[in-house]
Amino acid sequence: MRPIRTPAAARYGFRAHMRERAPLRCRFIQCPTPPGTSKLPAVSKSKRTGGQGTPATVALTQAKVDFTLHPYEHDAEAQAYGEEAADALGVPYEQIFKTLVAEVESGLAVAVVPVAGKLDLKAFAAALKSKRAAMADATKVERVTGYVVGGISPLGQRKRLPTVIDASALDFATIYFSAGRRGLQIETAPSELARLTQAITAPIGKTG
């Protein structure tokens, strides 16, 4: 298939390639769970993948969540990872979410916001009842989450962190976010992501 030049490709100097392979459907029977048992346990380092998938996909599989995997060809020269994924998959920027990690008074915390915008640190801090927030050091983020920058997923991290999902996610039946490596996105219901990460939703994204 011919490479397609997109607006983001023009801005960042790369070509996004549509993957000919169809998305991978991962459907599971939704089993009822007793009250208070719906929370997903933290995934230990030794059992994060079991040799298959990514920690994020393993977490979804163990929770019997319906999700779709969307692989695409990642350009090693790309810097705008979220926009690259949106262009390659033909998904609106507002529907693909990036996973950011920031420092608040209590420690590290995760923010899930649309790739079309930025994280409003003031709003993020307020959502977590913290006086301040600042973006975390990339090296520290990779060590704590177990993922590399550009492929950080809100699921399956080495250490469970407080998580806030931008309220705009609830505008969609499904949203996309990293599966834990560059070139692979998960599509699932925002309510499932919020449930599994024990996240709160708040307007923490901003344009520009």
Automatic annotation (TrEMBL):
Alphabetized UniProt keyword annotations: Lyase, Protein biosynthesis
InterPro entries on file: Prolyl-tRNA_editing_YbaK/EbsC, YbaK/aa-tRNA-synt-asso_dom_sf, YbaK/aa-tRNA-synth-assoc-dom
Domain YbaK/aminoacyl-tRNA synthetase-associated: 83-196
Entry's transmembrane regions: none
GO biological process: translation
Gene Ontology MF terms in the entry: aminoacyl-tRNA deacylase activity; lyase activity
Gene3D superfamilies cross-referenced by the UniProt entry: YbaK/aminoacyl-tRNA synthetase-associated domain (3.90.960.10)
Similarity comment: Belongs to the prolyl-tRNA editing family. YbaK/EbsC subfamily.
Protein name: Cys-tRNA(Pro)/Cys-tRNA(Cys) deacylase
Naturally occurring in which organism (per UniProt): Streptosporangium subroseum
